[in-house]
Design a protein that fits this description.
Shape: globular
Helix content: 40-55%
Number of strands: 31
Structural class: alpha/beta
Distance between the termini: 97 Å
């Protein structure tokens, strides 16, 4: 087994597991591994991986039989459901386990006993199911599968592992998956095998005083035997109050403990016994149930757990009679303390409300504390939160409607950005990630401030004016005063098709850029002719979360396909029959590494912006399988869902030979260019400008990415705030305009259409005029720019027509003179 990679091991010890291994070992095991990594001692053990379960089904031939039985099952027919699931569980339990898996489990059980210096014949373990789908966002599997306690011996452990596997097909679990729309093939089963704590003493611990709310102390309650006696109130426990900083025992109260709860090995159950008891002479009812060193060790762990979770905690613990101190002290469960935490939160809210009342200021008196580039228009006001890690404690506590202040964003920040009332960054220019995403989400944003994270403090109330690029201290009354709401088109029953004629009709199509699928509900009634750019990176980051190659290695390809198709279909359905141009993924390597499981598959690049991205990934043997998943998702949307308004776009195209290879892969997956299925190429590398007429032989159209095109024509990093301030990064530069003109003219010479989806048309009216005059076929802009751009294009087209009419009249007049 040592030669196998982590993803192909039958067994993983809990200390080997991280939060990124949910697909391999399930949520329970992943959490246990994270606690161990944080230095929190949990009972030792190992995970039988989901790969072992999948291997068992495929090696024995059960997979084909089981999924065939479930294919036509009507889960609403209770009799049929019970009958089929019963047969499946019986098949799993009665089918011998492949010897390579069985021996791995037996060997690991023996190793666990050796690690603990316990006779393998008496080692008791808990065998718990840990379904790999249970922590996915669309469904909860809590309580759906089995847990077996006090299991002894190799034979029993092997049988209980199979029982856990079988529990994936109880009637309840099977019905639940169908109701949640989760394919049975997606739900795999990992199993935890973990030492049962032989509790000499057990109890609870609070990282504040549960009566007074004093946060400077830790309170420990303890009794003999299992913790059920303390938790269930069956005994008056011993109590210690420990100073949180010094670990000095400030108070102790030793009670008379008349009962204890212990495990009876003969009956196989827990039972209550009276104390004193000759079978348990160590349980002296009048003696302390913990030594001073055990009390201090528990207090240390209490501090560690509170720091790890960032709040006061209610903790269950146990001291194992089989082990020597300090290895004997285990944490059994940890959950947030509620009573005092709720009171504290309420007090903070009341204080914040009072501060908010005092911080309302007049515009004439408002103090500007930060200036930057106005990246996304609008005004947002609220409590500022300075956050540097999108996965850290501060990020977890970030609330809807707060102001996000950070150095710069990338795809990992999108969930926080969506909750923000406004966004302020230290770094970045008008085409940075923060600027582009905030414009698409319709959230006010200022970038390139230089020092916002230093000047603005968490908890300050601020007002962000994204149109002017300034941040005011306090809530500026005139800027945040509610405006009268316009009557929405949906409120008066006007469809998008009926709405379009109410705005100027243009020969140049006006498309809209979109990233986040949920945003379509907000923008679907705008007068646009289609979606000219839909980035699927938002779906992968927010809906899928895992690196596609990681999912492939785990046999979870369908998860990627289904979630991608779901996000695309949501938009395509909302705007049907208007077209939607879906751009295949264009993450850079550093962004791919940020996906769960991504570090294994992504190299470190010195300059990811011009590195392994776009089509160069799709045709590489290493990444090609992942690209095929994207293609299958498109095919699913078009063929299975009937949304034939979905087209595709290839990003960061460099050469014709790479397009040939990418198109061949698409054709192998059943996607062919045709009358109702168009393939576009992003025109953002100068090579396309030089050879647009040659590239036009392979695609139906181009979409100019003005951000990257400007970057590569001028050699100016688009994320450099310094260059942006100095005026280097400017889409209006003559060289950039010359490249755009070249693309349009060469593409049209071969009958290919040209669009533009970069930021330039959303920002510069003069570029819109240049594009229309040059004959571009469509312009795709951010949602906030759809209406003004349509009006601007209409006026430009009228101006062009008037010029042509004027020329014609001059010719006619000259003819009449003769």
């Amino acid at each position: 087994m040592s030669e196998r990679g982590k993803e192909e091991k039958f067994i993983l010890w809990l200390e080997e597991v991280t939060k990124d291994d949910v697909v391999l070992v399930g949520g329970k095991n992943a959490n246990l591994g994270e606690m161990l990594r944080a230095g929190i001692p949990v009972p030792p053990g190992f995970a039988v991986t989901a790969y072992a379960y999948k291997y068992f089904l495929e090696k024995t031939g059960l997979a084909e039989k089981i999924y065939a039985m479930l294919h036509d099952l009507d889960v609403n027919d209770k009799k049929a459901l019970d009958e089929v699931t019963g047969k499946i569980r019986k098949m799993i339990k009665e089918t011998p386990m492949p010897p390579e898996i069985e021996e791995s489990i037996r060997e690991s059980y023996r190793k666990l006993a050796a690690r603990l210096n316990i006779d393998v014949n008496i080692l008791r373990v808990a065998v718990r199911s840990s379904a790999t789908a249970e922590d996915m966002p669309e469904a909860s599997f809590a309580g759906q599968q089995e847990t077996y306690l006090n299991v002894y011996g190799e034979d029993s452990v092997v049988e209980r592992v199979k029982d856990c596997w079988a529990s994936l097909f109880t009637a309840r679990a099977t019905f639940y998956r169908v109701a949640q729309g989760i394919p049975h093939e997606r739900a795999l089963m990992s199993v935890t095998v973990q030492k049962m704590v032989n509790s000499r003493s057990a109890g609870v611990m609070f990282t504040l005083h549960p009566v007074t709310g004093d946060e400077s102390v830790i309170v420990i309650e303890s009794s003999w035997g299992l913790g059920e006696a303390v938790v269930g109130g069956k005994v008056t426990p011993d109590e210690w109050v420990v100073d949180k900083k010094t670990l000095e025992i400030k108070e102790r109260k030793i009670s008379k403990k008349n009962v204890a709860i212990v495990f009876n090995p003969e009956k196989g159950v827990n039972e209550k016994i009276e104390l004193p008891n000759p079978k348990y002479p160590q349980f002296n009812p009048d003696a302390p149930s913990l030594s001073d060193e055990e009390v201090k060790r528990l207090a240390e762990l209490g501090n560690l757990i509170e720091k790890h979770y960032g709040r006061a905690m209610d903790i269950e613990w146990a001291v194992d009679a089989d082990l020597q101190f300090p290895q004997s002290v285990f944490i059994v469960q940890a959950r947030p303390e509620t009573v005092w935490s709720v009171r504290k939160a309420k007090a903070v809210e009341e204080k914040a409300a009072a501060v908010a009342g005092r911080m309302v200021v007049k515009l004439a008196e408002a103090n500007i504390i930060v200036r930057g580039l106005p990246a996304s228009p609008g005004v947002g006001a609220g409590v500022a939160k300075v956050i540097f890690d999108p996965h850290g404690k501060e990020a977890q506590e970030f609330k809807e409607g707060e102001i996000l202040v950070t150095k710069m964003t990338d795809p990992d920040w999108v969930p926080l950005m969506k909750k923000s009332a406004a966004i302020v960054t230290d770094e970045g220019g008008m085409t940075s990630h923060a600027a582009i995403v905030s414009r698409e989400l319709g959230i006010p944003c200022i970038v390139g401030t230089g020092d916002a994270t230093q000047v603005i403090k968490s908890g300050m109330e601020v007002t962000v004016d994204g149109s002017k690029g300034v941040v005011y201290e306090g809530v500026v009354e005139e800027l945040v005063k509610p405006k009268e709401e316009a009557v929405g088109v949906a409120a008066v029953g006007i469809s998008p098709e009926q709405l379009l004629p109410l705005y100027p009709v243009t020969a140049t199509k006006i498309y809209m850029n979109l990233g986040e699928p949920d945003a379509i509900e907000k923008y679907k009634d705008l007068p646009f002719d289609g979606i000219g750019l839909m980035r699927i990176e938002f779906i992968i980051t927010d809906w899928v979360q895992y690196h596609p190659l990681y999912l492939i290695d785990q046999g979870k390809e369908q998860l990627f396909i289904d979630k991608l198709a779901e996000g695309i279909a949501k938009v395509a359905q909302a705007i049907y029959p208007r077209p939607i141009v879906v751009r295949f993924s264009d993450f850079k390597t550093n962004e791919y590494r940020g996906l769960k499981g991504g570090e294994k598959y992504e190299p470190e690049e010195r300059n990811p912006m011009i590195g392994w991205r776009g089509v160069s990934r799709y045709i590489h043997p290493k990444y090609e399988p992942a690209f095929r998943l994207e293609v299958r998702a498109i095919r699913k949307v078009r063929e299975e869902m009937g949304l034939t308004n979905v087209w595709v776009m290839l990003p960061f195209v460099r050469t014709t030979w790479e397009i040939e290879k990418a198109l061949k892969i698409m054709e192998e997956e059943g996607l062919h260019r045709g009358k109702d299925f168009k393939v576009w190429a992003m025109a953002e590398v100068p090579s396309i400008a030089f050879l647009a007429d040659v590239f036009a032989e392979y695609v139906d159209g181009f979409s100019i990415g003005s951000n990257d095109l400007t970057q590569l024509v001028l050699g100016a990093d688009r994320d450099s705030g310094i260059l942006a301030e100095m005026g280097y990064f400017d889409e209006r530069d003559p060289a950039v305009l010359a490249a755009i003109r070249m693309i349009i003219e060469k593409a049209h010479s071969k009958g290919a259409t040209v669009s533009i989806c970069g930021q330039a048309p959303s920002v510069y009216p003069e570029i819109v005029e240049f594009l229309v005059e040059t004959g571009i076929d469509s312009i795709s802009v951010n949602p906030d720019a759809v209406i003004p751009t349509r009006r601007l294009v209409a006026s430009i087209e009228r101006k062009i027509l008037l010029k042509r009419l004027d020329k014609l009249m001059n010719k006619i007049n000259k003819l009449e003179l003769y």
